[in-house]
Amino acid sequence: MHVGCHIDNICVNNLSYADDMALLSPTIGGLRKLIKACETFAACHGLKYNTVKSELMVFKAGTKSPDQIPPVTLNGIQMKVVTCFKYLGHIVTDHLRDDDDMDRERRALSIRANMIAHRFKRCNAQVKIALFRAHCTSLYTCSLWAHYTQRSFSALCVQYNNAFRALLGLPRWCSASGMFADAHVDGFHAVLRK
C-alpha cells in the first residue's frame, strides 16, 4: 500500500508473527488506512480482529508527545491508547526504553530460580547446575535491549548472581566470577554476549 513507515525506501507498515500483528504509521491517517485494509481482508476471509486485545500507542519524539490523539477505531470500536504493550514477549514502551522489559526478565528469572531451588533442594550440585543452565541462562529478548538505565542492568545482574548463589547454597559475599568459573557456568555478561 506504500502507507506507513519507511526505512531506506522500504515500506515497513506491519510486523506479523502467527496471530500477532503490529501496524506502524507516522500519522493517524495512515494508520486508519492500514486498519481499514485489515478489516476488509478479515471480512473477506471470515476473520475478526480482537478489539479487546488491540491497542494504540504513540511513540514519543524525545520528551515530546501529542496533547491529544484523535480516535482510531477497529471494527467500529475505539482503540485504547496505552504507553506500553507486550509484543511477542517483549515489553515495548512509548519512550523506547528497555527498563520495563529488563524488570520483566528480572522477575521471571527470580520465579524460575526460586522454583528450581525449592523443588530440587535435595539434589546434588551437578543437577542444580544443569537446571540453572537450562532454565536461567536464557534471557529472552535481551538482544533487543538497547536503551536502559544502569540501575535496571545492575538489578538484573544481581538477580542472576543471587539466583545461582541461592540455588547452590553459597554465601552472598562469595565472588560471582569465582562461583561461575568453578561451576563452568556462564556469568551474566557472558550470557548477554552470547
Please describe what this structure looks like.
- It is built from six helices and ten strands; from the N terminus they run ββββαββββββααααα.
- It has 194 residues and is α+β, with helices and mostly antiparallel strands.
- The chain folds into two domains: 89 residues, no CATH class; 95 residues, no CATH class.
- Strands 1-2 form a two-stranded antiparallel sheet. A two-stranded antiparallel ribbon has the order 3-4. Strands 5-8 form a two-stranded parallel ribbon.
- The radius of gyration is 22 Å and the shape is elongated.
SSE class: alpha+beta
Tell me the number of strands: 10
Domain tally = 2
The percent range for helix content is 40-55%
Largest sheet: 2 strands, antiparallel
Mean pLDDT score, rounded?
A: 93
Determine Rg (CA atoms, Å).
22 Å
The order of strands across the largest sheet is 1-2
Which features does this protein show?
single chain; 194 residues; two-stranded antiparallel sheet; 6 helices; 10 strands; 43% helix; 15% strand
SSE map:
Layout: E1 5-7, E2 10-12, E3 14-17, E4 20-23, H1 28-44, E5 55-56, E6 73-74, E7 77-78, E8 80-81, E9 84-87, E10 90-93, H2 99-119, H3 125-136, H4 150-168, H5 176-183, H6 188-193
Parallel strand pairs: 5-8
Antiparallel strand pairs: 1-2, 3-4, 6-7, 9-10
Helix pairs in contact: 2-3, 2-4, 3-4
What's the short story on this structure?
Helices cover 43% and strands 15% of the residues. It is an alpha+beta fold and 194 residues long.
